[in-house]
Known about the structure:
By secondary structure, the protein is an alpha+beta fold. The chain has two domains: 5-39 and 168-211, no CATH class; 47-144, no CATH class. 24% of the residues lie in helices and 31% in strands. The chain has helices spanning 5-8, 15-26, 40-45, 175-188, 193-203, 216-226, and strands spanning 49-58, 63-65, 70-84, 90-96, 98-101, 107-110, 128-136, 139-142, 149-154, 161-166, 208-212. A hairpin with a 2-residue loop joins strand 7 and strand 8 (139-142). Helix 2 (15-26) packs parallel to helix 5. The chain is elongated. The chain starts with a helix and ends in a 12-residue tail after the last helix. The relative contact order is 0.20.
Amino acid sequence: MKCHPSRWGRVGRTTAQALVLCAVATVFSPIPADDPSEPVERLLRCSDIVVLASVSEKLKYGIVAGPGGMVHTRFRLKVERYYVGSGPEAVEVLIPGGLLKNPDGTETFMSIAYGGGAWGPSLMPGERFLAFLQVFAPAYRFVNIRNSQAMVTTDESSGRETVALTFGTVELLGTSAREKYEKLKSEIQNLSGEQRTIAANLLQYVLVEQVPVPDLPSRLEKTVAAIGGPKPPTTTCH
């Protein structure tokens, strides 16, 4: 995402001040500041397993699952790596809505509309992502929190693969991201009045970091340790 200083250069702001605001708004991630992203710490507290995976198959017919008796579509995921928990090389994930084959041979389709800011995962064959999953018998489901499916993105020029993760505290940022954060925080002190208020509000969103895929094991391990360990089996998250 490109930021033009003119966007921030209203009356009373110097070019330098506009550049600081612009940097705060864009330096860490292309995720917009109004995106209600959730920190990794919260996701981990609700996850039974955390995996790097891709969709290998979407089954035609779904199943009824959960206390509400809702139809769910079944997706099979090929697991590249477990970061939290352990299990087989393939797991099944249930997504609300889908086609059900009734005992009499007829079919029933249930559609789920996500609206009003609600979030739902998007599973496409071949896409790779970091998945925060919880047990949902007889399979798994994504933790019902935004960012429980974090897509792997690849830089076309370098081939570098990253995942955008939101952290709840500065201490969990990587070295480079933390240094940028502290630099921007220091530069904000040179602003005054309205400019400082706007920049301080924007700064809370720069805890989104593009984490290289090879660094995920150490970064997630550090975050799990920071929250006191993996999710206890008795913890219930909705």
